[in-house]
Amino acid sequence: MAHPLFVALAALLPSVVMAQDATTAQKEAATLDAVKVTAARKVENIQDVPVSISTVSGEKLDALASGGTDVRYLSGRVPSLNIESSFGRAFPRFYIRGYGNTDFRLNTSQPVSLVYDDVVQENPILKGFPIFDVDQVEVLRGPQGSLFGRNTPAGVVKFDSVRPTQEFNGYGKVGYGSDNLWNVEAAVGGALSARWSARVSALYQRRDDWVKNTGTGPNDGLEGYDESAVRVQFLYEGDNFEALLGAHKRHLNGTARLFRGNIFKKGSNDFVPGFDENKVSIDGLNHSELDSSGANARLSWDLGNYKLSSITGYETVDTFSVGDIDGTSGPYFTAEVPFASETADGIPKHSQWTQELRLESLSDGPLNWQAGLFYFKEDYDVDSVSYDTTNGSKQDGFQRINQTNDAWAVFGGATFQATDKLELRAGVRYTVDKKDLTVKDYWNTGFAPCVLAAKCDLAGLLAAQQAAFAAGDAVDPYLSASTKDKKFNWDASATYAVNDDVNVYGRVATGFRGSSIQSAGAFNEKTVAEPETVLSFEAGVKADFWDNRARLNASVYHYRVKDQQLTAVGGSTGNANILLNADKSVGKGFELDLQAYLTDNLLVTLGSGYNHTEIKDADLSVAGCMSCTVTNPLDGNGKVLINGNSLPQAPEWTHNMTARWSLPLADGAQFYVFTDWVYRSEVNFFLYESKEFTGKSLLEGGLRVGYQWNDGDYDVALYGRNITNQIRATGGIDFNNLTGFINEPRLWGVEFKANF
Known about the structure:
- The chain is mainly β.
- The chain has one domain (41-183, 293-315, 345-755): Maltoporin, Chain A (Beta Barrel), CATH 2.40.170.20.
- The protein contains 3 helices and 42 strands.
- The strands form 9 sheets. The chain has a 22-stranded antiparallel beta barrel. It has a 5-stranded mixed beta sheet with strand order 3-8-9-6-7. It has a 3-stranded mixed beta sheet with strand order 14-13-17, with no helix packed on it.
- Strand 15 (225-237) and strand 16 form a beta hairpin.
- It starts with a helix and ends with a strand.
- Residues 46-156 form the TonB-dependent receptor plug domain.
- This is TonB-dependent receptor.
């Protein structure tokens, strides 16, 4: 029996075709521009690529960024995309089609890859680089293992900066808003010579603390930040050679994630009476610092019937973040706060090198192909620190681990135009991925339960390991681990042109995420999680109709993840962070992307995603929370059985809408109103289900009212973000009390932008 989603798609297709054929008698001026994407590592029309893709660019990016928020403002702005963080602006976690990773460790990986200017940003801290002077954001849904590599089984989020040109151009933007918010951007570029051009762009954002601390901690106010970033690019354009050289840097000084203790009413996910998002009571320190930088060289040679490309990238990050995890201010060791917890995490040393070589054919015939080599090398330390909040936040524990990750891959893809209407594509990739983890230092004198009784003396084991290293003897395997994954991935697709404006496609693809290692520690046992693999099926339609005044892209999908890596956080038994594999998880759903000029002056976009996920492992159980009301059954050991649960942070529904109406005035001026709305349904914060840690549905809206003149070169606008001021918990901490963190409250401001 056919899946009902595929039946729905089949029923939709004829109406799309008829709408396309039923052209209007007189062509209107306002039409949709073609969208160019690089989802297949070459420039193509988005309508011709057999992948579910959405893009964000232009005025929509400007409007979403008005409030000075970080990359999380993209959450829900395209179908099936969710982004959240327990580190604030520093560590975004991406989910596509409900498939992501809630792990907060700094040596973790994610199944959604982020690629910035063709360079993968592997460490989760690197994924938070600000969005400014960006030409377009592409969200590729489904496995991208053939052309983009490992750690892409859920998809890819791709950012492309504005390139230098020979034409002198740029922009300046300044915005001011609530809580003394400043949001300043600028870019300038142009020719340096007949062959060379350059572009420099910069960002500065700051906001005062808007949360008052009524507790005894060292922070009087919280949630403020000061962030800056800069990018410089040089472009050389020869007769048969092009070189694009870039460098970038980021600095962040501000508040770490603000945890709010006991904010949920026992037995429900309602906030406690009197909850005030503008106040908190904590006694520990809250602070976050981050510096990152990088450089890349993208070279290409035109060899006639072939094109050779080289992409070299280097990234480094230095970060430290400390927070009051229990989210409260004394008294301690009560029913409300069983124990105090103040911890910090940091990366004091980090380097990432990537190198890709790719050869692409440029044939006029029916067959074209590309093939390449990829190399990845990462080496970094991670620090974990604990403090005794009851003793003036004196440090009482420390651990430093080192993780290295070396990977290489060979890949290829081919496109074959079988007939005038049928195009076939296929891709393959073979990857070798190796990780090594070692504990370099450890001590703990504070409240530190031992997870494995036989391995309580980690400091003693470390001393023995160091002595063994010196003597050339074998070391205790409990303090080190190595993995080596060898995986073959592939994809195959077919696109059929119903007519010049309507394509239908089908795609089958695989992907994998490499093994993960969790080090031994006071609250953790050493764990190695096997690699997870995914098999995905997708079908869709891409249609332009109504004389190019409207565009509809729709897809249905089903995926199965084998050995999915999951993280059980906290819980009432030992408060350990546990890394584990689920036997299987599945996801199915659909996405819709619609854009239409309803009139010449009214452009509306609608996006919708339905994602049903389910863990399938009858024997898998995790520790439940210490204080919440768990609704799943228990096993014989008092742990929670999670078979049948949805994946965490995986809303079933995501919707987004924008509308822009303009009133043309004299001399190229216009008055306009732009509004954007995003909705996500409720989510589980953790692997188990509970009444308190189920996030309520969230609806946020934005409004922008502005005036443009000189054919759009100048723009002044009033804006609002989260204009209904809907406050919801977006995550929680479950090992101590009913702690949660929330979304951003309402913000108003004014902004001016000048293009030249």
